């Protein structure tokens, strides 16, 4: 993999004062002793084809100023770590909360690869390879809390099914825990799964749907503990569903975007809705987001303290402030949507994070 924009000879080029990071701008400070002092905070996006490069070779975790979109840091990923053709890769679950670890799968060997952040903050470097037994293929990694979660698909004769396993990040040589089995969905594929905001396994097909009454439409939700994980809102004859590629909002709120009869993004409909259940979970309120825009919401990132949302339409990122009552304010357009050379054409949201301390 060649040097990424802003990366020279393996070191991240950081501006001091008013300088720029790479060809896309951005600011970051350098420590007085000459060591790189990268502040990994802001709107984190996973670029596949960073700076217009090859979508398989030039992959990076890039931090953007949440107000201007300017780049503040770029961290190189292992070459080919992320499928550039996957449209809804759960990028938000591939990195640990402290950014120290990044997990990806090896499609050739069926192994789990764990990478760790280099000391200078310029790249993720190979840290551990978790090899599956001969009769299994491991894949679909997620990091939650202090554990690495992944699927195990049986390939041996007479063996069927896909299970979810987990192992401690600091004890990857240990025997993985058996967390649960994935039933088949209506299409005969293993059920969608996730690790909820409370670090518990959520398997979509094992959760009952709940219909919730409200004055502005019909709502069906699936929950994991106290967290709404999936939702379908039908209002004025139109359907809105959760944005699966975005981080789970957690608690009793969820963002839903426009979908068509096939469950695909309805390009002709603009905006999204913030749906919030009441304290008894017997009713709900939905607030229109970007309803006056000209494009659907594709991704979102909640603020770390949940008092605001960043929303990506096809053309720009927007900010919406959230009140103490859960209501949303007017959307403010902030900056054009960054682009990459993946099939989707734009980088995938990881999360909106604040500086440490």
Structure, briefly:
With 357 residues, the chain is mainly beta. Helix content is 0%, strand content 42%. The protein is built from no helices and 26 strands.
Characteristic terms for this protein:
single chain; 357 residues; mainly beta; 4-stranded antiparallel sheet; 0% helix; globular
Describe the protein's topology:
Elements: E1 7-8, E2 11-12, E3 42-48, E4 59-64, E5 71-76, E6 101-106, E7 111-117, E8 124-130, E9 136-144, E10 147-154, E11 162-168, E12 177-182, E13 193-195, E14 201-203, E15 210-214, E16 218-224, E17 227-235, E18 238-242, E19 253-259, E20 272-277, E21 283-289, E22 299-302, E23 308-312, E24 316-321, E25 332-336, E26 348-353
Parallel strand pairs: 15-21
Antiparallel strand pairs: 1-2, 3-4, 3-26, 4-5, 6-7, 7-8, 9-10, 10-11, 11-12, 13-14, 15-16, 16-17, 17-18, 18-19, 19-20, 20-21, 22-23, 23-24, 24-25
Descriptive account of the structure:
By secondary structure, the protein is mostly beta strands. It has no helices and 26 strands. It has strands spanning 7-8, 11-12, 42-48, 59-64, 71-76, 101-106, 111-117, 124-130, 136-144, 147-154, 162-168, 177-182, 193-195, 201-203, 210-214, 218-224, 227-235, 238-242, 253-259, 272-277, 283-289, 299-302, 308-312, 316-321, 332-336, 348-353. The strands form seven sheets. It has a seven-stranded mixed beta barrel. Strand 6 (101-106) and strand 7 form a beta hairpin. It is globular and about 55 Å long. Residues 1-37 have low confidence and may be disordered.
